[in-house]
Design goal:
The radius of gyration is 21 Å and the shape is globular. It has 13 helices and 17 strands. Helices cover about 35% and strands about 25% of the residues. It is an alpha+beta fold and about 425 residues long. Strands 9, 10, 11, 12, 13, 14, 15, 16 and 17 form a 9-stranded antiparallel β-sheet that branches. A 4-stranded parallel β-sheet has the order 3-2-1-4. Strands 5-8-6-7 form a 4-stranded antiparallel β-sheet. Among the domains are: about 130 residues, no CATH class; about 70 residues, 2-Layer Sandwich (Dna Ligase, domain 1).
């Protein structure tokens, strides 16, 4: 089994550096995110719990004071949080030239590195303005792996198993000709899955069967007339492993961890560890091969490889999330628990997208008996609480001595915060 590491180790070795977190959900190439996820700008605070003393966290909205103080009291966050001026109109990388940040950097002239969620042209400009290194690369390099069609072709060229299926551009087809492409994929398993090339969080994924294929095609022509899609047979899937890695500033490759994705309605809503996949070592070895290819191409930063295991035990690589993944912050918390208290045998990460609105103090009161207090690695840890006051949205991280214990604690937390 490949040993787990951390994002911070990929940054600070061999030189000790503090981190500037520029975690911006809207930086990735998905124009639909802000419309599909109300209040998304308030969810950038998820990395507050990943920072340490001396780090700087950039935000576009003020964090919940109670939550931030709770983290600091536990020694799990930094006091240096910079809310960029005009943040409600700007993305984080576009605000780094603001005077407040310049003043903050001058007060703490330590060697730093900028850590974004996604590495694109805006992030490169931001680090040039700051005069510090970026844990990232050019967007051209990022897109070689982020684009599902380019990554699929790379896998085929390197003998990495993927699900066969055509890649089509909607503008090149009429209704019936596109239907002739989709139907053979449906006949293989009874249903086809149609995925756009850069969508995330369930966007741009459509299920087609013989009953609805005409409606799906009509929708694609109306809403995606010039877009490209991958069309694959929808297999019967038992596990969907996610394997996360990071390539450091010195080109060393680090493994963050392997977990199973929790998927509902084609969208990621959580992760569970350890993975129940039939051959985690096989997944890790394929991932390492991909990591070596990415490193050679000049990629730097976090990436997560999604896999599919079918009922026959066949394992296919599905896509490359060449950015921080939804569970990346959780892996960091788990590593902190292990450094403080000992091994974490299991964790469950689960997103509640809409719940009972409350402030952090009320959340802490309702979950007092299992909220992390610095004494044990087996607990409940809240992440991504930027919208809890408005919609009750929160990400729940629970740990346990085994898989079922972590799941049971998650269920208990949900009951408590729903009352």
């Amino acid at each position: 089994m490949i040993q787990r590491s951390t994002v911070r180790e990929a940054i600070t070795n061999p030189t000790r550096r503090n981190i500037i977190f520029g975690y911006e959900l809207l930086s990735q190439p998905d124009d639909t995110l802000e419309h599909r996820i109300p209040g998304i700008r308030k969810r950038n605070d998820v990395v507050l719990a990943n920072s340490l003393d001396g780090d700087i966290v950039l935000l576009t909205e003020k964090p919940d004071k109670g939550y931030h103080q709770w983290l600091m009291d536990l020694g799990l966050s930094t006091e240096h949080v910079c809310v960029l001026e005009g943040g409600e109109r700007k993305r984080i990388p576009e605000g780094v030239h603001e005077k407040e940040l310049s003043d903050l950097l001058s007060k703490f002239p330590k060697e730093r590195v900028y850590v974004p969620r996604y590495s694109g042209s805006s992030e490169i400009k931001a680090t040039e303005q700051l005069g510090i290194p970026l844990l990232g690369c050019s967007e051209k390099i990022t897109m070689q792996f982020y684009d599902k069609s380019l990554f699929k072709q790379l896998c085929k060229e390197n003998g990495i198993p993927t699900i066969d299926g055509p890649i089509v551009n909607i503008s090149e087809y009429q209704h019936n000709s596109l239907k002739e492409i989709i139907l053979p994929q449906i006949r293989l398993t009874g249903e086809a899955i149609i995925k756009d090339l850069t969508g995330s969080a369930g966007a741009g994924i459509y299920n087609a069967s013989t009953k609805n294929v005409d409606k799906v095609i009509q929708y694609l022509f109306k809403n995606h007339p010039t877009d490209s899609f991958i069309i694959e047979p929808k297999l019967k899937i038992v596990y969907e492993p996610n394997d996360q890695w990071v390539i450091g500033l010195d080109d060393r490759i680090h493994h963050l961890g392997t977990s199973d994705q929790i998927i509902k309605n084609n969208a990621h809503c959580g992760n569970s560890y350890p993975s129940q996949c039939s051959d985690v070592n096989y997944v890790n070895n394929i991932s390492k091969k991909v990591a070596e290819i990415m490193c050679q191409a000049g990629y730097k930063g976090v990436f997560g490889l999604d896999y599919l295991e079918d009922t026959q035990g066949n394992i296919f690589i599905s896509e490359n999330n060449a950015r921080m993944n939804g569970s990346t912050p959780a892996w960091d918390i788990v590593n902190k628990f292990e450094q403080r208290h000992g091994r974490v045998e299991s964790f469950n990460l689960y997103q509640i997208r809409k719940g009972k609105p409350m402030n952090f103090q009320e959340l802490a009161r309702k979950t007092e008996s299992f909220l992390y207090c610095g004494e044990s690695q087996y607990c409940f840890f809240p992440l991504d609480i930027g919208l809890i006051n408005e919609t009750g949205a929160i990400t729940i991280l629970t740990t346990g001595k085994n898989y079922q214990e972590a799941v049971n604690l998650k269920d208990e937390v949900i009951i408590q915060i729903s009352n």
